[in-house]
Specification:
The complex is a heterodimer of chains A (about 375) and B (about 375).
Chain A: H1 5-13, E1 21-23, E2 40-48, E3 53-59, E4 64-70, E5 74-79, E6 85-90, E7 97-101, E8 106-112, E9 117-125, E10 131-138, E11 143-150, E12 156-162, E13 168-173, E14 179-184, E15 206-211, E16 217-221, E17 230-237, E18 243-249, E19 260-263, E20 269-271, E21 287-290, E22 296-301, E23 306-311, E24 317-322, E25 326-332, E26 335-340, E27 344-347, E28 350-354, E29 358-366
Antiparallel strand pairs in A: 1-8, 2-3, 2-29, 3-4, 5-6, 6-7, 7-8, 9-10, 10-11, 11-12, 13-14, 14-15, 15-16, 17-18, 18-19, 19-20, 21-22, 22-23, 23-24, 25-26, 26-27, 27-28
Chain B: H1 2-20, H2 24-27, H3 42-76, H4 80-100, H5 113-117, H6 126-137, H7 145-149, H8 158-166, H9 172-175, H10 181-205, H11 210-215, H12 227-254, H13 274-290, H14 299-320, H15 326-329, H16 333-360, H17 367-370
Classes of the chains: A mainly beta (about 375), B mainly alpha (about 375).
């Protein structure tokens, strides 16, 4: 059913049947801000030695400012435009989202999607910071959606947008402030069979562009048919509105293909670089990030222990950085910071944070 | 006996906890200066392929061809006796498949072959509906094995054949017309399965095939940069097999109490071969460890896994001998309790495979490498 603008706005204004559930906050912040603290600069989910999950906020020098326990494994984080709030999403098929108050360095609230839904681990704020968008699985109906939550009203779920694909993973608000880009990974999952891929032979990954103002599909793009098992999962917007996409391949391990693609506005999705570039990356890109000016793109390949840096202008590979089990990449100034499974945060060759008692999870967010 | 097994598992669990106290960096591959010196894995890789993988697919091919022949006879002479023979032969085919289900790597992942042989889970019965529709429509193209192989994966594997032989309307196979569509389709599925098994086998063993890729692991190898990565892959599939049995086939079906059980979430309930298949799944792990030699570098852990899985299979055999079909069995209080106990040694066996053996061989995968998203 197509939603018109009026219906969409009405949805935003009502609690409706999509209301989310607030969770009790049983966790305790392990630090409080001091007047001498530097402001928060990074956030990421992590796991400690006994298997406890948490989200940690660090300053620009890699110093831990505070952390909050998570009930289960976290994935990615959305940061509000004014940088006062961060929302850590559960890893699929998890159902929690934890809101952190970055200014006061503590948790604010936790919430869940409605029954029958789970988070896919990614989300973003609207340009004015009033709404939070989360990629979700409407799993009984095998439908990918973006859930919309009212930040000003206790994260009440006010509406949803179809992503026009299965398994939406990363989604972002483009720099025009109104276009949502969604990577539909194409992989069907259901909590009845947790993390089991149910449709490997019929995958249809795609990138959807959706108008955030009325939820209408603006355009959708797919890879050439021979890449139908390349799950498009992570993305970032570079200079000029180019979307860079990282994929995870579900086909034969002997297939040789490009794992990174980009799409310039109005054009087809184009695989980047020769397939040989990706040898050793184990068919798996874990994160995509851009630097501050949007001229460079970093793609992590944690199974291959390397990060590739790309030039947005010509799509060429600039260099490959070797880092063991490094999944997180985040733009910092004109370069990138990298997080790894050994508890390190790397800025260039320097580890600005080291704590072997923790493993950083898939994604690192800078702000 | 199960109590004894449980106690052993608890001891191991404390060992796992001890392992967990090691810093992540201390067990990560390549970064740890004190990591164990890796032995030469080449002979074991060769042994696994030659004694476990290839014989497994050969048996599957032979079983599928035998089933085709028996179903052809049924088609020509539709009697109760011949249907019974086809169903018995199906059990052999289930055994053969369940012994190679573990090898979800390399050639089995090409062209969706794993799904072609075994389309499961079929959560919304999409595959089943396709099979039913095909039988109603009597699509003649589906009677050519080669053409069937190009159709939906749900139409050409073990579970499609199960519906043909055991599903609603299957009794017509013993009483119906000569050469009925359903019967011919069953024979075609069997032949298609044999062809898929042959394709997998050939891709393993041909010159520059998957076995050669494993033997020649190195920096320029497109799939494996080291023999250690090959070992990781075999340990991964062994662990995933145990996890699939434990989490997806058993726990997911029995749930936490009999009244909440969902027996049809397990495969092969229609033919009553759920437990039979699970036993062969678990045997395939011990086969890979012992006959294949995967456990030869860590004999203590290999023995522990063998102990846990044999205990599990002994208990499953007792359950298998009971008269109730699977869908009723899991709702019985005592059977449910036994099946719940089984989850404990299976968890132990999985952890040994995933954590302890990898660590002892210096092959532990990093947090993000192991299971990202």
């Amino acid at each position: 059913m197509e939603i018109n603008r009026r219906q969409f706005m009405a949805g935003l204004a009502s609690s409706g049947i999509f209301s989310s559930a607030l969770l009790p906050l049983a966790t305790i912040s392990n630090a409080s801000p001091s007047s001498q603290s530097r402001p928060p600069a990074f956030i990421a989910a992590r796991k400690d030695l006994v298997g406890q999950f948490s989200a940690a906020v660090l300053d620009d020098q890699g110093k831990l400012l505070f952390s909050e326990k998570l009930e289960n494994r976290g994935h990615a984080t959305a940061v509000s435009p004014n940088k006062n709030l961060a929302v850590v999403f559960a890893r699929r098929p998890g159902r929690f989202a934890l809101v952190l108050d970055l200014a006061n360095q503590n948790k604010r609230v936790a919430f869940t999607p409605p029954e029958g839904y789970h988070f896919f681990g990614h989300g973003f704020f609207s340009a004015d910071g009033r709404l939070l968008y989360a990629s979700e699985n409407d799993y009984e109906n095998e439908r990918g959606v973006i859930g919309i939550y009212d930040v000003t009203d206790s994260y009440k779920r006010v509406s949803e947008i179809e992503t026009h694909g299965i398994g939406p993973h990363e989604a972002l608000l483009m720099s025009d402030g109104s276009t949502i880009a969604v990577a539909n990974g194409g992989i069907l999952t259901h909590p009845d069979y947790p993390r089991q891929k149910l449709n490997i032979s019929t995958m249809e990954p795609s990138i959807s562009y959706i108008d955030a103002r009325d939820g209408k599909l603006l355009s959708q793009a797919s890879l050439p048919r021979e890449f139908y098992q390349l799950s498009l999962r992570h993305m970032a917007e570079a200079k000029g509105g180019t979307i860079w996409i990282g994929g995870q391949y579900e086909g034969s391990p002997t297939d040789s293909l490009s794992l990174v693609a980009h799409q310039r506005p109005g054009q087809k999705i184009r695989p980047i670089s020769d397939p040989k570039t990706y040898h050793g990356m184990k068919h798996y890109i874990g994160s995509v990030a851009v630097n501050a000016s949007g001229t460079l793109i970093a793609t992590s390949a944690p199974r291959g222990n390397r990060i590739a840096i790309w030039d947005n202008d010509n799509g060429e590979l600039i260099k490959i950085i070797q880092r063991q089990d490094a999944g997180g990449v985040a733009g910092v100034g004109e370069g990138f910071t990298i997080s790894d499974g050994q508890g390190n945060l790397w800025l260039g060759e320097q580890a600005i944070h080291q704590d072997a008692d923790f493993a950083w999870d898939n994604h690192l967010t800078s702000f | 006996m199960f109590i004894a097994s449980f106690r052993v598992s608890k001891k191991k669990l404390s060992l796992f906890a001890g392992m967990c106290l090691l810093p992540f960096g201390a067990i990560a591959q390549d970064l740890n200066p004190s990591k164990p010196i890796q032995p030469d894995f080449t002979p074991v890789i060769k042994q696994m392929i030659e004694r476990s993988v290839l014989p497994g697919y050969t048996t599957l091919q032979i079983s599928a061809l035998a089933e085709e022949e028996i179903i052809q006879k049924l088609c020509l002479n539709p009697t109760t006796e011949n249907l019974s023979k086809a169903r018995q032969s199906y059990a052999t085919l289930v055994s053969a498949w369940s012994a190679v289900e573990i090898f979800r790597l390399g050639p089995a992942r090409k062209d969706n072959r794993q799904e072609k042989l075994f389309f499961w889970p079929d959560r919304k019965s999409i595959g089943l509906k396709q099979v039913r529709n095909l039988i109603v429509a009597e699509d003649q193209k589906a009677l050519s094995p080669e053409k069937l192989q190009t159709k939906s994966v749900a139409l050409q594997g073990l579970l499609a054949l199960e519906y043909v032989l055991f599903g609603k309307g299957s009794e017509v196979l013993s009483t119906g017309e000569l050469g009925s569509y359903r019967c011919q389709y069953g024979a075609t599925i069997s032949k298609a399965m044999a062809l898929t098994a042959r394709d997998i086998s050939e891709d393993w063993s041909k010159p520059n095939g998957y076995a050669d890729l494993m033997y020649n692991a190195g920096p320029d190898n497109p799939v494996y940069r080291s023999k250690g990565e090959v070992m990781q892959d075999f340990l991964r599939v062994a662990s995933e097999m145990i996890q699939s049995v434990r989490d997806l086939k058993l726990h997911n079906s029995i749930k936490d109490e009999p009244g909440k059980s969902k027996p049809k979430r397990a495969p092969l309930w229609r033919s009553g071969m759920t437990i039979h298949a699970i036993k062969y799944n678990l045997n395939s792990v011990t086969n890979l460890m012992n006959t294949g030699g995967l456990g030869s570098f860590t004999p203590r852990y290999a023995k522990s896994i063998e102990f846990e899985l044999k205990q599990t299979n002994r208990t499953l055999t007792k359950l298998e001998q009971r008269p109730e079909p699977w869908i009723e069995l899991v709702k019985q209080e005592d059977a449910h309790q036994i099946l719940s106990y089984i989850l404990i040694p299976l968890e132990g066996a999985k952890n040994i495979t995933t954590d302890l053996i990898l660590a002892e061989l210096g092959l532990s995968l990093g947090f993000n490498s192991l299971d990202g998203d």
